[in-house]
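Entry for nicotinamide-adenine-dinucleotide complex. Fields follow.
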Amino acid sequence: MGNGHRMRDRFAAGTQYIGGRLRSGTSGRTQDVVNPATGETVHTYELASAADVDAAVAAARDALPGWAGATPGERSDALHRFAGVLAERAEDLAHTESVQCGKPIKLTTEFDVPGTVDNTAFFAGAARHLQGQSAGEYSGDHTSYVRREPIGAVGSIAPWNYPLQMAAWKILPAIAAGNTIVLKPAEITPLTSLMFAEAAVEAGVPDGVVNVVSGAGRDAGEHLVGHPDIAMTSFTGSTAVGRRVAEIATASVKRLHLELGGKAPFVVFDDADVEAAAHGAVAGALINSGQDCTAATRAYVQRPLYDAFVAAVADLMGTVRLGDPLDPATDLGPLVSHLQRDRVAGFVDRARAYATVVTGGEAPQGDLKRGAYYRPTLITGAAQDSEIVQSEIFGPVLVVLPFDTDDEGIALANDTPYGLAASAWSRDVYRAGRATREIKAGCVWVNDHIPIISEMPHGGYKASGFGKDMSAYSFEEYTQVKHVMYDNTAVARKDWHRTIFGDRP
Ligand code: NAD
């Protein structure tokens, strides 16, 4: 069966998941889901209207008292079962993610899907471990303690680069903490978010706790962010859209969580293992065709290693196999769309005027011509303030620049508006330690670049946003803290009443 038939049958009931069932959108406008490896339309659906968003928010509000009132153990049990259902469907999820995004099946099978199952299992455990300050008699006359309470119905918006993982990062901490949620995936890649929501309900998460509206950003997205019954907005996407989301969310005084763009530096000091650094740079730049907010995008290499590093990276890029995403031998798939490929090509073409394209810089011909492919691209000779060094490209493009002193390397790493992730490469523990302290980013790797784990937080500094996904830290985002204070004296006239009643008896 072709992918088109398979998807059309799978989502015949519609591409909105509201109150525990799939239904059609009602906007009157359709959206194609296109396999970027072939250009084939695999599904066409009706986008969500404002009324569909209202229905999803109402379902989330209705489900809130029951779910917020469930014990942590009950929520944890449902999430454990949810992890089991996802694991059973691993193959279907990996296939669908590869088809709608063009990701190599190797990546979806080894990274996207198992990462999502592991996140789910982590939040099943974390649901029972909400942390807070210990109760105590801090005033002497009262007992104080902290409650961590759900915030309410959360509205989340996700990008297209890791649709399944982004759905998981948004939905899991929210529901583990007792909130309900309406997620709006990117309109070009809604399918695995819907499958994720279905699996949650089939595992025993009640109807209405997880809802998905597949709609356009400007209307369904903005309507969700501004909705008066939504208590919190959690957004992952570009910094430009994040600014707009922040404006709308702050106007209605909502809790706000923003995971935005990145332009990760990759700093190679002159005592580093150059072979390891070159492998790390190529894998870190090309993962998911470079459509990764933490991808290595700017390599700064101390002068003695610069030539060897550039030569090794160029050689390694030449060994990466572009091909059919469903072929297990494929290393690099297409970009998510022809539009995104052309955007990336535009950045590289403009850079030719002021920098050198060492390798790549073109779309492959032959069998891959129909797809949104772009060759791994290495650029040198660009100035620090040029567009290719400063702007997020979101494609398989690595820029390499030399530096002389350690101070200069760290200053260059910090010299963009972004601060999501970075890496430092050195065998000297003091140099690496200094880099981890002084680079302004939410994650700094030493002698590696990319790995993430459920137990550790992911989130940005500077224009990369604020708030943390994954880990126990995400409960800070999806809970509100209440101080409860009990009087222990049982007297009518408390000591502190002297401020009002003076020395009157
Ligand atoms: P995008 O900002 O264009 O879109 C993200 C989401 O916002 C989509 O669902 C889109 O429909 C929606 N949207 C668009 N306009 C909107 C509006 N006016 N109001 C409300 N919603 C709106 O981003 P993208 O192109 O889908 O994804 C790539 C971007 O995501 C990159 O900048 C990347 O760095 C970022 N990203 C960040 C992280 C992180 O953790 N920091 C993770 C993944 C991706």
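NOTE: Residues 157-161, 184, 186-187, 217-218, 221-222, 225, 236-238, 241, 244-245, 259-262, 293, 392, 394, 420, 460, 464-465 surround nicotinamide-adenine-dinucleotide (CB under 6 Å).
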